[in-house]
Design brief:
The protein is mostly helical. It has one domain: Up-down Bundle (Rhomboid-like fold). The protein is built from eight helices and no strands. The longest helix is centred in the middle third of the chain and has 22 residues. It is globular. The N and C termini lie far apart (59 Å).
């Protein structure tokens, strides 16, 4: 006896956003390595600080610092935003552009920390998070008009970071957030200008 009517197909897991999922996996592996090595792997590979330009690891750390996190809470705070915003941005801009914005954000924040803050050890994906936040506000960019949402996000975000930088005594690099936001904004303007 045959069944009548349409049958619902079983839900399947989709491996969407390979760049974002790959980024998340690398961050998770680096955190596990840090836990296993009591932070030694973060010092060697996954943080940026003033070190000898003769060492190849210095150049690796210019990019590797975005994968390192100081704790599970630090990791979760950043990765939740990345998993929320990243897939939408990857769908809009494509895998190549996402890799480029992550790499540029890493390099710019790494170099600025290396040059101007020689005694500060920087790690974490927060620069990438804020690049994504500002980039996401360009989703409705049309006909050369600057979206009000972008203006509001930029003003609130930069204002909060400046306030925290002046008045908050914490271990968070507000400058990294601002730089990440600037990279995301520049990329958003440039990308939307090209597509017009």
């Amino acid at each position: 006896m045959s069944k009548k009517g349409s049958q619902k197909s079983a839900a399947k897991i989709s491996f969407n956003s390979p760049v974002i999922l790959g980024f998340t996996a690398i961050c998770l592996v680096s955190l596990l390595l840090s836990v296993l090595t009591h932070g030694a792997s973060n010092n060697v590979l996954f943080s940026v600080y003033r070190s000898s330009l003769a060492s190849p690891l210095t150049y690796l750390r210019f990019f590797g610092h975005i994968f390192g996190h100081a704790s599970w809470q630090h990791f979760i705070n950043n990765i939740m935003y990345i998993l929320l915003l990243g897939p939408l941005l990857e769908e809009k801009y494509g895998q190549t552009d996402m890799i480029m914005i992550i790499a540029v954000t890493a390099l710019v924040t790494g170099l600025i920390n290396f040059i101007f803050f020689p005694h500060v050890q920087l790690l974490g994906a927060s620069g990438v998070v804020f690049a994504f936040i500002l980039l996401a506000s360009f989703a409705n960019f049309q006909n050369g008009k600057i979206p009000v949402t972008f203006i509001l996000v930029a003003v609130i975000y930069i204002g909060q970071q400046v306030y925290n930088g002046i008045f908050a005594n914490n271990n968070i690099s507000e400058l990294t957030h601002i730089i990440g936001g600037i990279v995301g904004s520049i990329f958003g303007f440039a990308e939307n200008k090209i597509k017009r």
